[in-house]
Amino acid sequence: MAAGVGLASLPAHAAGPVAPGGHAIAAATKADQGRAGSLPGGRTFSSPADRTVRTPLPGARTGAAAAPQAQGAQGAVGNSDLYVYLAADAPTAHSIELRSHITGAPAGLDITIDWGDGTTDHATGSGDDERKTTHKYAAVGAYTVTVTAKDATSGVQGVNRLDFVTSGSEFTTHAPTRLLDTRSGLGAAQAKVPGRGSVALKIAGAARIPAGARAVVLNVTATNATGAGHVVVQPESYGFDEGSNLNYAAGQTVANQVIVPVGKDGSVQLLNGGWESVDLLADVTGYFTASVAAGYVPLTPVRAADTREGLGTAKGQVRGYGTFDIDVAGRKRVAEGATAVALNVTVTNPRSAGHLTAYPSGQAAPTTSSLNFTAGQTVANSVIVPVGPDGKVTIRNGSWDPADVVIDVVGAYTNDSRSALVAYGGPYRILDSRKDSWAGRKAGPVPGRSMLPLPFDGHGTSSDIDGWVLNTAVTNTKGAGFLSVTGDPNTWPDYLNGAAVTPPRPVSSSVNWTAGATVANLVQTSGGKSGVLDFWNQGWQDTDLIVDLIAVYQTS
What number is the average pLDDT over the span 237-262? Predict the structure, then answer.
């Protein structure tokens, strides 16, 4: 590593901070098992053998009628013992792993798998045939897989079908809309969420969100808290695991963006992890479905606007209740025609308390908020915002007084990308620097002005993950600073072998903090060359780092 970049302590061996096997996705998928069967990360599909339909092969002499027969039909076809059992998993966003078990054939079998997308695979077998077959779909969606087993000896074929849905989902924008406000009774009872209590928020069917929505993008805000705590957003009420989405202190109004799977009943659960009651708000900006819409394109974070310097907009603070537009589509490596952009929005030097709202240009300002702040505070929040018809987004200062605003673009959603979201039921704790990690990194804060590389996708030299969705938090801060999260150009073996080159120090920020604060923010980042992510403590003092896995984007 070059001089000037401190390297924080690495885990003791290659598995990094993840579960045995060295794969953060494996850890999340394993944790999903036994939770909600509707979650894309852990769902299994099956079609039992008794659904097998047996018919005579064309020209076969069975001595019986040729009408289709299922289990229980005796003597209708030459071989009433031919059964086809099917089960499938969705290991990646677009793929299926099909397990077939064919029984009752005394001799040779001719097997055809129709994947439901116009393609087929053929195989031969004999007797008791059990196999795994994988297939990748070009697009996310629902497919009917048909397996036909032909037993030429008995003159019979058995057919079974399995309905399958890819684990990947694509993004559809939604006008920023408030779905929940416990202060007014919108979306739930007009009452604070009690300590260690929860509130269910209906997503499917609300504000014209379709019933088939599999995940939703929410900006969740906590306010009127009388004590410190945290909020967890889940598809089902699993209870309080280690993960969290939002941290708050007494008297604080704080927001964080959440991407969460929708539960089987069409709702999500917001759990108050504090011991005192708190009001919760939730604004929607988009949702994901298992149908072709817009896929994600991760970008190296690039600064699109900074009112302190006049970058991307006029120089000078945004006046109270003032707005400015940012050109995004076709700029800053964002493709023309992008339907939405993923931004990190930071406010600094505000003269009084207020909020910022990001929304599509050319529209009236919504009543939602993207970021809340107090006088003198520097705070960031992740935002996914639809792009207006002119390729711009609008930022509005919802305070009475001026404030500086900084905008970083971290990704975009386009109709040309097939990188689909695979969301887990978490958040799942991957790293807590206050504790010894699963893989040997000893407890201890990340030193000031240092970078901590972590292998999220095992320790190979490539990755099939296009982007990572994390909830990243800092705590036990001793001074002001900010965190940057980027994909690493090295592989994990490069670090283990001492061959890693120094990544460039980023200028974008993901989390901003002051002394004594606990601050969280959603981070969407590419995985670099092989799934190694870099966490840069850009402050001068040590700080503890907490990382939870939310979801991934995959083209595979």
Answer: 90
Q: Which residue type does 196 have?
A: R
Cβ count near 325 (within 10 Å): 17
**Residues 258, 10: Cα–Cα separation, whole Å:** 29
The dihedral formed by the CA atoms of 464, 469, 475 and 478, expressed in degrees to the nearest 10: 80
**DSSP label of 57:** P
Q: What pLDDT score does 42 carry?
A: 58
The helix/strand/coil state of 501 is: coil
Backbone φ and ψ of 24, nearest 5°: -65, -35
> What does the alpha-carbon distance between residue 313 and residue 229 come to, in Å, rounded to a whole number?
37
Name the residue among 201, 219, 214, 135 with its Cα closest to residue 425.
Answer: 214
Mean pLDDT score, 131-155: 95
CB 232, CB 271: distance < 8 Å: yes
150 within 8 A of 77, measured Cβ to Cβ: no
Which of 96, 97, 95, 147 has its CA nearest to residue 125? 147
Query: In sequence order, what are the residues at sequence separation of 6 or more whose Cβ sits closer than 8 angstroms to the Cβ of residue 185?
Result: none
Q: Which residue has the tokens 């505000």?
A: 350
Which DSSP helix (H) or strand (E) runs through 495?
helix 492-496
pLDDT for residue 375: 97
Assign 27 a pLDDT band (cuts: 50, 70, 90): low
Ramachandran category for residue 521: left, alpha or beta (phi over 0 → left; psi -120 to 50 → alpha) = beta
**Contact between 343 and 407 (Cβ < 8 Å):** yes
Report the pLDDT value the prediction gives residue 2, as an integer from 0 to 100: 40
72 contact partners, CB below 8 Å, separation of at least 6: none
Q: Which amino acid is at 414?
A: T
pLDDT, greater one: 152 or 396: 396
DSSP state of 211: T
Distance CA 211, CA 42 (A): 20
Distance of alpha carbon 477 from alpha carbon 473, whole angstroms: 11
Cα 474 from chain centroid? 20
> Which residue reads 């990194």 in tokens?
441
Cβ-proximal residues to 430 (8 Å cutoff; 6+ apart), any chain: 17, 18, 24, 27, 454, 456, 470, 547, 548, 549
- Please tell me the distance from the alpha carbon of residue 312 to that of residue 408, in angstroms, as a whole number: 11
Token pair 């400015």 is at which residue? 324
Element (H, E) at 432: strand 420-432
Rounded CA separation 147/455 (Å): 39
Position 108 confidence tier, pLDDT thresholds 50, 70, 90: confident
pLDDT surpassing 70 at residue 258: yes
Q: Is 393 helix (H, G, I), strand (E, B) or coil?
A: strand
DSSP-derived 3-state class of residue 307: coil
Measured CA distances, 78 to 83, 153, 161, 194 (Å)? 13, 9, 22, 66
User: pTM for this structure?
Assistant: 0.91
Neighbouring C-alpha atoms within 13 Å toward the C-beta of 365: 17
